[in-house]
Design brief:
Length: about 260
């Protein structure tokens, strides 16, 4: 039984898939739950890109999907919030008004520089890049209240080959602080399986997941981060096996921001 908690639709400016097509695929793939998590990125460093959503339209469209398909699949209203230190309060206010089931806190920028176009990496060694990224992440965890999980924790390795060669086990001292802050705040992490599609590897390695588990981390969601309907729940069986090997017994589903543990 799959719970895909990172799924994009036409409300994301980088996605052309109609939400109804995504939901219909999710039903075909026999997903138990699908959580739509379209992008909001306020004050994005590249002003030519607009990652903002009309939240009233978004809500009413999700309600329409529930009315149409709700007897066949549970549809959750999520969001992928692009977080930056200087917009934390704004993000909190938006989430408080938005009646969401689930919120991913994702860093798509660092130091107000783009990760995707690699501006952030220029002039930094891989270690300097990681340390700055984790410093900003820690600030956001401590100050952003209304989120459920940290999105694609190792996104730096997605965009920079030098960084991708680093081993996250060399950063366990920093990750320990980050994981402990998440755990005391009842927040979790997601396992983002999109890297299995475009890099044929899991960026969040089993060693890191094992470390999270050893510190008492329990909240984990799985997300395909798909922008097309046919890769929903991609690689989830493989992840279930990894999680069970480590000793995890549950993954997490959410409703009205409340976690619920689902046995795997
Ligand atoms: Zn993202
Ligand atoms: Zn995403």
């Amino acid at each position: 039984m799959y719970y895909d908690y990172h799924v994009h639709s036409h409300f994301s400016s980088d996605c052309d898939s109609q939400m109804k097509d995504v939901i219909e695929s999710a039903i075909e793939f026999k997903l138990k739950e699908v959580c739509i998590t379209d992008h909001i990125d306020y004050d994005y460093c590249d002003p030519s890109i607009n990652f903002e959503i009309d939240l009233n339209q978004y809500s009413s469209h999700i309600q329409l999907m529930r009315d149409r398909y709700g007897d066949r699949i549970k549809i959750l209203k999520g969001i992928e919030m692009g977080i930056q230190p200087h917009i934390v309060d704004k993000c909190d206010r938006i989430i408080e008004k938005g009646d969401f089931d689930f919120v991913i806190s994702s860093m798509h920028t660092c130091n107000r520089q783009d990760l995707y176009n690699r501006d952030f990496f220029k002039g930094k060694s891989p270690r300097e890049a990681y340390l700055k990224y984790f410093e900003e992440m820690l600030f956001c965890i401590k100050n952003f209240k209304n989120f459920s999980v940290l999105g694609h924790l190792n996104i730096l390795a997605r965009y920079d080959d030098g960084v991708a060669k680093e081993n996250l086990t060399d950063y366990f001292d920093v990750l320990e602080v980050i994981f402990k802050e998440l755990i005391i705040r009842d927040k979790g992490i997601e396992i983002n399986t999109s890297s299995l599609r475009y890099k044929d590897t899991l960026l969040l390695s089993p060693a890191v997941l094992k470390f999270y588990h050893s510190l008492g981390g329990e909240i984990i969601t799985l997300g395909s981060d798909t922008h097309v309907p046919n890769t929903l729940a991609h690689g989830f069986d493989y992840i279930y096996d990894i999680l069970k090997d480590i000793g995890f017994k549950y993954i997490t589903a959410f409703e009205k921001m409340e976690p619920r543990f689902v046995r795997i």
